[in-house]
Amino acid sequence: MFTVIHPKFHLNGIHFSTKATLLEFVKKDFESIYSFLEEWFNAKKYIIVYTSGSTGKPKPIKILKEHMFNSALATATYFELQEDGITALLCLSPDYIAGKMMLVRALVSGWHIDAVAPASNPLHENKKYDFTAMVPLQVHHSLNDLHKVKTLIVGGGVVSRTLQEQLKGLKTKIYATYGMTETVTHIAVKKLNNLTGITNYYEVLPNIKIEKDDRDCLVIDAPNLSKTKIITNDIVKLIDDKHFCWKGRFDNIINSGGIKILPEQVEEKLEKTIKQRFFIAPKGDTVLGQKVILIIEGKKIKNIDFTCLGKYEKPKEVFYLKKFVETKTEKINRKACLELVC
Q1: What residue numbers bound the domain in which 170 lies?
Q2: Are residues 92 and 195 in the same domain?
């Protein structure tokens, strides 16, 4: 049931009525798509997916195909993408859950999807789409072409304030996503442009309940996506049972002389000051226990302005790396970078 090809499904302009003909088509030129679809169409009830590795070593987990099917339907319903002839672009690697789910959404809802190799600007062709998903780097390099997309979701990293400012005047409906491999991609979205009223909150998708634990971390109850509640390490502020504000990672907290500091909040304040990639991290200190440090990628910066920061947020040291260590999904590997300077 879950792996049936929708009769309206097209890939790169071609209609496929059987699984065999689809697999035959992708086998030669789309190795990653073939690898996923072969697993998707087999008799097992699950597929094996690897976590992104952004908060530790990538690990394999089993994701039920039923849950992927449910996630695909939830996205199509939320964004009203269930009409005939919906066009979509796959420009993320099918090796990871975000790329896999773009394919599943198309198969389930009968989209006409084009697959292209992941690139910094996947919209360089003069073709328009109803829906696509990108990482922030792709969005940055596609600013002049985003008008070709009606609805865009952005995941795989934090969207900087600078980038969000650049999105303000665009007609494209653009959303940041909150999710992880364990939640079968996003379970909540946040508007990045065309804003009215309060804007910094994520809204959960249908059939998802949220709460906090005693660490103020988000707990997700999504029976259509997971058999058990998912306890995250994301510190949040709950607005109501459908909305929350993300504040930072519990495992990134810096305890400096008894003062708890969230690096992500310090980084947000520094975005207007530092244009190179950077992040805030802890370093052991004999007096404070931990002290705040700043690690910057690339050339040295003279006279960094820290006036936007609170007394305890100001970095005690600044380090530079020629090139940041990245995960396979091109996120900054904070732990590996920190080991290079400390």
Answers
A1: 10-249
A2: yes
Phi/psi region, residue 157 (left: phi>0; alpha: psi -120 to 50; beta: rest), is left
Q: What is the pLDDT of residues 110-162, one digit of tens each?
A: 999 999 999 999 998 889 999 999 999 999 999 999 999 999 999 988 898 88
User: 3-class DSSP state for residue 150?
Assistant: strand
- Is residue 199 within 8 A of residue 207, CB to CB? The reply is no
Strands (E), the chain: 10-11, 14-15, 46-50, 60-64, 87-90, 112-115, 129-134, 149-154, 173-180, 185-191, 202-204, 209-212, 217-221, 230-238, 243-249, 254-256, 259-261, 278-285, 289-297, 317-321
Residues of the chain with pLDDT under 50: none
Query: Do residues 100 and 194 share a domain?
Result: yes
pLDDT digits (tens, 9 = 90+) for 166-197: 999 899 999 999 999 999 999 999 999 987 76
Same structural domain for residues 259 and 332?
yes
Residue 60: Cβ-neighbour burial (10 angstroms; 0-12, 13-18, 19+):
exposed
Q: Is 130 found in the same domain as 18?
A: yes
